[in-house]
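User: Can you recover a sequence for this backbone? Please restate the input before giving your answer.

Assistant: Of course. Working from this structure:
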């Protein structure tokens, strides 16, 4: 086990890499939650609804979104109703299975998602100081973590 020194507190005992990774994740999650809380107070779109828009990079079935986000289908249905009421999504029949519905972003929804991409870049690159290469590496690692959690949750 290799300990990583803390450059912000050189007199502190070094933290194990495993715990350093967790501390970074906790700090990032708390920081993002605080920012999302500020945004939530200025808009009618809730935290969950904003997360759905992040996941909605293309039309997706409600069940698929629920699985990807680890929420109950009934939670997804309620949130989809709210997003539809805000004019951010529409429900369309899935052309591959007419029994299923796709959630599709409207132009307004796509604009909101694009704004969130810019906000994420600002947060990760400017505020947290990640380079483009570090951002790509962080994204690959984060997506790997998500895929592995999804596999674990479906077992």
């Amino acid at each position: 086990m290799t300990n990583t020194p803390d450059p912000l507190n050189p007199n502190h005992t070094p933290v194990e890499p495993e715990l350093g990774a967790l501390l970074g994740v906790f700090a990032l999650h708390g920081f993002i939650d605080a920012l999302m809380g500020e945004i939530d107070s200025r808009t009618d779109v809730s935290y969950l609804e904003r997360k759905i828009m992040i996941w909605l990079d293309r039309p997706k079935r409600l069940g698929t979104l629920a699985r990807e986000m680890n929420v109950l289908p009934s939670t997804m249905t309620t949130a989809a109703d709210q997003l539809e009421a805000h004019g951010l999504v529409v429900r369309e029949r899935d052309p591959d299975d007419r029994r299923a519905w796709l959630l599709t972003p409207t132009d307004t929804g796509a604009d909101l998602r694009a704004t969130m991409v810019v906000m994420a870049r600002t947060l990760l690159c400017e505020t947290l100081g990640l380079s483009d290469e570090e951002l790509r590496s962080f994204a690959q690692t984060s997506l790997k973590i998500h895929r592995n959690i999804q596999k674990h949750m479906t077992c």
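That completes the design. Residues 55 and 65 are 7 Å apart (CA to CA).
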